Amino acid sequence: MSNTRHTEISVAYTNSRTKKTYSLDDRVEEITITDNAVGEGDTVDITVMDKDRKMVYDYYPGVDDMVKCTVSLYGMDGGKTGVVGNQTFHIDQFSYNDFASKMTLRGIAVPKNSTFAKTPKTKTWTNTTLNNIAWFTCHDYGLPYYRESGAFNPHIEKVEQSNATDLSFLFNINQTYGNGMKIFSDRLVIFSEEEYEKKAAVRTITHSDIIDGSFSARFDLIRQYTGYEYEHDVGDVHWTRSHYFITKPEIKISIGQCESQTDGELKGRAKVNLANRDMQMVTFEIIGDPKMISTATFNLSGYGGLDGKYYINKVTNKFTASNGFTQEIEARKIQQRL
């Protein structure tokens, strides 16, 4: 093993037709792993050389193929400094170019043929909690589920799942109450983005760290909403309540009828914070760093008014045989929450 900084890749491809697992390490030309903080599952695109035509004959893809992809980084002393990827993806698409003898495999975190992600359902949930809804839904699919301690777990008197897939329903109801949700390597995780924003920055990014010509920023100067209003009943008394930032103008959003004061406040804060979340955005490319993952925070320095603490929304990890390992970072400046 070399004692200089370098990158090693591992691609284990399990073919559902042959029931065998093949190493594609020596064939890889390019790998792109997209790491999303919330909402969409992670994806991978792997371009492999196929001069011996094994990919279209011996390894020809089947409908239930899987790929486990890992990018390992080694430091100047030869020791491993970190790993990117290291999860299993479901192959849902491939393309082939005969002239260049290349095949590109596309993998996703949740298989498209899964009823969890594909089949709309209608169901009424009553007298339950957000945690119970997630647990029972995941249990039906044998999908491991984990709720982090900082995530909200409100009591829910009644909620309708109306012609929605279980995946979209779970994402929307968690977003309604201010939780983040992510599927990682066939595990569903519910967490608090607010708690992750409070974590220590993994590093400071300066002008010299950023690949020339790759930095861009978009900043909104005015919040979309500065407060919310909701209604709820206590016995025969009908209440209308509101809450605002200490700022002008007061631009409120109406949450409508809520089960209780707690329910209204959770939904109201979540709606306002979500609307204002991406007011200040930056994107840039850097040499690959395993600490820079979605949900991590970093400090930006050397950009004047753009400087501050940022939360990573998305990382596009890219390895090529010719250029090594780089990352495109999409991040938002952490805003004051309501």
The oligomeric status of these chains comes to: single chain
Q: Total number of β-strand segments?
A: 21
What's the total helix number?
5
**Helix-strand string:** EEEEEEEHEHEEHEEHEEEEEHEEEE
Rg, Cα atoms, Å = 23 Å
What is the terminal-to-terminal distance?
52 Å
* Class per helix and strand makeup: mainly beta
Mean pLDDT: 92
Approximately what portion of the residues adopt beta-strand conformation?
A: over 45%
Which regions contain 5 or more consecutive residues with pLDDT less than 50?
none
CATH fold description of the largest domain = Pnp Oxidase, Chain A
Return the CATH class of the largest domain.
Mainly Beta
Helix content: 10-25%
Give me the CATH architecture of the largest domain, please. Roll
Shape: flat
The main sheet comes to: 13 strands, mixed
The number of domains: 4
Q: What do you see in this structure?
A:
By secondary structure, the protein is mainly β. The chain has helices at residues 115-118, 130-141, 166-176, 193-197, 261-276; strands at 6-15, 20-23, 28-36, 43-49, 66-74, 80-97, 102-108, 121-129, 145-147, 155-164, 180-184, 187-191, 204-205, 216-219, 227-234, 237-244, 252-257, 280-287, 297-300, 308-320, 324-333. Strands 1, 2, 3, 4, 5, 6, 7, 13, 14, 18, 19, 20 and 21 form a 13-stranded mixed β-sheet that branches. α2 (130-141) packs antiparallel against α3. The termini are far apart. The mean pLDDT is 92.
